Amino acid sequence: MELLSVENPVFRVYLIAVALTVLKVMGQGWMTVWRMMATGGGWASPEDLRPGLLNRLPDPSQLGPNEAVDRSRRMHRNDLENIPAFWAVGLAFVAVNPALWVAQVLMYGFVLARAAHAVAYGTAQSHEVRSVFYTIGSLIVIAMALWVLVALVTG
Questions:
Q1: Of 9, 45, 122, 136, which residue is the least packed, with the fewest Cβ within 10 Å?
Q2: What's the pTM value of the predicted model, to 2 decimals?
Q3: Neighbouring residues of 82: CB distance < 8 A, sequence distance ≥ 6
């Protein structure tokens, strides 16, 4: 069995986790767009004030701060600061052939930690609450990286 094949159950776990986190990243971008359209504000650039089908009567106030849109942008930025490291180390993790249960705990644990982080951030929970879920996800990525290093150095 090849490691990077859908025949490998560890690789399948990785692919599921990647697909879910890709949907999270892309979905957050669309959430930002939806919030911009719903509030009629939070535009990012001066050229966004040009009249068009979706903004027939632009107003300079649309470039001002908008908490709903800004929160969604911060959530998106946080995803982009954290999830790609999981994608990279996850592939390396599959390549060192861990036990299936270890891959499931770590990879699905990361997905759940990011989902919980999104809920906490989206509902304006305190930094202490968000940081618990960030920490869990971060420690999982670090553990996977260390696992890869140990496997390569000792193997």
A1: 45
A2: 0.93
A3: 114, 134, 137, 138, 141
